[in-house]
Amino acid sequence: ETDVDVVTTGTWEQYSAQGYRGNVLCTKEINDYCAMEYYLYAPEKAFYDVYIYMTPSVEWSDSARYELFSDSLIFHGANSMSIYYDQSNTAVKGWQKIGTTFLNQGDKRVLKIDNENLKDGEYLFTDAVMLMVNRKIKTANKHVLKTLNPSVIFS
What we know:
Helix content is 7%, strand content 47%. It is mainly beta. The protein has a 5-stranded antiparallel beta sheet, with no helix packed on it. Strand 2 (13-18) and strand 3 form a beta hairpin. The protein is globular and about 40 Å long. The two termini are 28 Å apart. Mean pLDDT is 85; it is low at 139-155.
C-alpha cells in the first residue's frame, strides 16, 4: 500500500469515516470534474487482482464509476474498462476485489475513480487500492488466456 502515487483532479475533502489508514476522501461535486488516479508498482509482468478498501455508508454513491487500466488489450480489445460499484451497500466492508488486469513490471496507472456518474445529494468516496498477483491466471495455459480475449497476445 505504500508503493502508490495518486493524481488528484478537482475538489476532495477528508471525511470522518475510518478508512484503511485514517479518514477517507470524498466529493459531492457534480458540476466540475473530480477524479483520483492510482498508480501502483507491479513487481512482475502478470495478471493482478485489484482491490479497493470499502468503508460503506448510505450517503455514498450507489453507482460509483471506476476505470480499470491494463498494459494489454484484455478488455474486449481495449486497455481500460469502466466498472460501476455500489459504495452505499453497508454489508460490504474492507478489501473488495473490483477486477483483474494485466500489467507489465513497473509503476503503472491501475485505477481511476471519477464523478462522471455521481448523482446530486450523494458522496463519492475513495480510500486505498491494492494489487495482488493472480496466481491462478499466471499459471494458466493458453486456453484460459484465450477465454479472456482471443485477440490478446502476450510476449
